[in-house]
Design brief:
187 residues; single chain; three-stranded antiparallel sheet; mainly alpha; 2 domains
Amino acid sequence: MFRVWASQELERQKKIIEYNLRREYGVRFEEWKMKEEERIRKEAIERSTATIIGRVGEQLAPLLIFSNYKINPKDMRFIGTPIDFIVFKGLYEGNPEKILFIEVKSGRSSTLTPRERKVKELVESGKVEWLTIHLSSEMEKIINELGTKTSTYQRVEGRPICKSCGKYAVWIPQYGRWYCYNCRRYL
């Protein structure tokens, strides 16, 4: 009889302890959850605010740059990525002096991303080139390629075919001559 009572009492005490633990830790868990949700919301708002400030800051940057560096905002071109601006200093007044690459940092850190660092290194090492693309000539190159691939070696609309490679020549009005881009020579 004592054993039955002791067993029942032990079970009852276990249930009381379990109930009290669940209640106490349930309250603690709810408190923790509320604090964590508040912290997460606060961090999300801070990140969102930083992003918005960054975007607005990039748009306002030309005014700050003008004020601090005397660069005319009309000389600036927004690129966005991998750098924010290219500046053709003096171009608006018709007297270009130099070209600047500008990256605007609005956050706590002014550290460049790996891509931005690589662009900076290329510019600083002088690995910058000028390339002029003449669209009609570029289109002619593609047409010539297509013409060769389809084995059409006839005159098309009066255009001669290069005797060396069989591709269509392109008229270069500046020199008044037909030119083969494949062979890189005039006909």
